[in-house]
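Example record

The entry below shows one chain as it appears in the dataset: sequence first, then structure tokens.
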Amino acid sequence: MTYTGSRGETTAVVLPEAAQLSRPGVGSIVATGSQTNGDFGLFRSTMTPGSAIAPHFHRTFSESFYVLAGAIELWNGLTWARAATGDLVHLPRGAVHGVRVRGDTPADVLTLFTPGIARERFILELFELRDSGRVMSPEQWDQFYSRHDQYMV
């Protein structure tokens, strides 16, 4: 989208950390697509050693990981690649990816979703699952992922 005005607007927004939704072991929603006018969504997580996200892909949005501290390993469908503090991983729509943390050090990661789709609903449902202690069947996980444009491989 292009801005066509000649004077600029007074529309800058500050999203204070205290107002961000978060859960231990899941992460924080830093900015939702609705807060950024659909431009992006931003999520922050601290992945504990041994944690992993199974390989999957998305059809409607790209995803990027910026490693703030520690290191992650990324599965690209063929091999594992290491990304450490200061590294950026970009995943275009359709890119197979899985993530894991090896060793004894957690990884602090920012995840950027573009465009600013309603990925926060995915995160909020994960929060609800964690808070409730509910365990889902494989079929329920399949439905959950399908609802959120996450296709497991």
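Notes for this example: The CA atoms of residues 2 and 8 lie 12 Å apart. The helical segments are 119-132, 138-147.
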